[in-house]
Amino acid sequence: MADDTKVELMDAQTDNFETIHSKSSIFYDLYERKADLKQQTHYCPGCGHGIAHKLIAEALQEMGLQDSSIFVSPVGCSVFAYYYFDVGNVQVAHGRAPAAATGIKRACPDKMVIAYQGDGDLAAIGTAEIVHAANRGEKITVFFINNAIYGMTGGQMAPTTLIGEKSTTSPFGRRPGNEGFPLHMSELLATLEAPAYIERVALCDNKNIMRARRAIRKALEIQRDGLGFSFVEILSPCPTIWGKEPVDARKWVLEKMVPVFPLSAFRDRKEPLAANHAPGQRPLADVLGIAADTASSLPESKPGHLRGNLTINVAGFGGQGVLLLGQLLAEMGMREGLEVSWLPSYGPEMRSGSAHCYVALSDDRIGSPLTDHPDVLIAMNELSLRKFARQVPVEGLVLYNGYTVPADFELPAAQLICVPASEIADKLGSAKAANVVMMGALLEETRCLDSATAVRLLEAKVKNRALLEIDLRALAEGRDYVDHQANLGPLSQPDGFA
Fold this sequence. Notes:
Blueprint: E1 5-11, E2 16-21, H1 48-62, E3 69-73, E4 88-91, H2 97-107, E5 112-118, H3 119-125, H4 127-136, E6 141-146, H5 176-179, H6 185-190, E7 197-202, H7 206-224, E8 230-235, H8 239-242, H9 246-260, E9 264-268, H10 284-288, H11 292-295, E10 309-317, H12 322-335, E11 339-346, E12 354-362, E13 376-379, H13 382-388, E14 397-400, E15 415-418, H14 421-428, H15 434-446, H16 451-461, H17 465-484
Parallel strand pairs: 3-4, 3-5, 5-6, 6-8, 7-8, 10-13, 13-14, 14-15
Antiparallel strand pairs: 1-2, 7-9, 10-12, 11-12
Helix pairs in contact: 1-7, 3-4, 14-15, 14-17, 15-17, 16-17
């Protein structure tokens, strides 16, 4: 008898039964919905996603993998997985699940990383990601829900739409001469050498659902045992977009889809490839390009002035070294044993376009590189000052590249210090050093990182000796300006902060 349905016989003579339904512990107790939709499910009646969810949840539960599993869900109906699976969940951009899963698995090799994708997502916008992840033999598991249509966004033709089938973007039916033939993803990936397990199954009747159950468990076992990349394509009904009743939709899978997409195990390798080893784990000293004796001297304790975490927004024009300053701060944090993140944002212009980056320095693991209210803003130009200064909280700090703020600028609640970094850098002989001046000012004012670390980092990174000399002087000038000159000018706000 199935674990999720227990039937107790109440009266053998009258055949009265009481049915007690239960569900896998992998699922949440409550499936949350918006207030006006709380009586509706995410999935349409007869949708195959619910069955696939159940089979995956049962396999994870039976294998005891709940606490070590991470689901990666992209855009599409598959995104709703994080409402149901009580495991680690990451939602990524359209088609990018294999790429994100690759990064997660390499960072957390002891975790079960599962990409759950639809056909429009995996076989259209994500074709490159799935092909290259499979070709590298990434030790992830991909469940590919193939219903031959774009389900969530209105029924456009998918790469897997059958010949002759009409959709919102193929109103005359799919024609090979115009829209091409359906993509056979399992067969395509099976031409690669690296994948360990590839199988196509269907959710069309009980027999095939049980076969799908075995394939799903097999794919997870492949990853658990470290054999390589595993992929299960699941032919699934989509009654609403197909315009069919649920029972008829299942029949359509069997009668129409299966002949085009034959059910088969296309790859089932029992041993890992000889060359399919996990990427080597390099010591921190190698990654940072520093000598072993230097690495051994990394501080065991955190910087004295950093408590908890510090978030920084560096903003300005392209060409001002905005992104580079963020990278330098992040690497300084790594050298001092902190958790760090660096997230850039920039436009298409090579020079003069808007650019900014977020840097997080923390004693603890960083949940997200994004922040709505950074502790520090380093504004390299007036535009960035006006755009971001209001985001800094009262106890925060704004460092502005200038002698004074514009006359019509409303002062922020945070502490504001004007540092004419560009002018200082020009006097030193290179306008490129303005970002290093601001780094010196930041380090001196916040003491979030050790300036000696900055000196060692610059010595390691800057190969041009003349430019290195300017950068070292710029670092010192930034610190000196905050210490001896920033407080000598007019106050920027009435509370006494310069």
